[in-house]
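ingest -> validate -> predict -> emit
validate: passed (alphabet ok, no gaps, 175 aa)
predict: started
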Amino acid sequence: MAQLYYFGSPKADFLLTLIQFNVFRALLQNTTTLDIPFDWLHDVADSAIVQGLFNPTAPSSLQPTALQRKLPHHPWSDLFPFPRLRDNILQACDGRVELEDALCSAMVGWCNSPSTRVGIIVWGEPCDPSGWEVTEGFCKNWGWLMSGCGDLIESSNRWRKVRDEKPLVLEQLQH
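emit:
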């Protein structure tokens, strides 16, 4: 598969699409796990967590943080199994819709090509942090959001090691 990827095989494009669908699948599954109605995910929705509405039996990785309970935000940021990342997103995007839209697009890998590989990849169960990976391209543009997210970097590096890729070192990637 690696050789086909480097030669621009259409199969690489299909793999990229599959990776994007895995992210969507993970986010939708976490939406269900958190008991968030799908109609609450529209563009101007506010997270119900601020109103105290969330699934108390959801896995610990998805339990809301104090900031999520306090700061009004769109529910898409509730769907990641990394509490510190969720808080970082809320702090960075507070009232900045353009930044939030750009970040959301970057996370799901919109406008990607096999050579850019920007976004998040989900290899396992959506609520399990060890199945998530951030790409090098994502870290180059958004690495500042990873502050304090050692669990996400560790998980990413485990997946990179499987592919014989160098580990991510945020300090070397950030602009």
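The CA atoms of residues 145 and 174 lie 10 Å apart.
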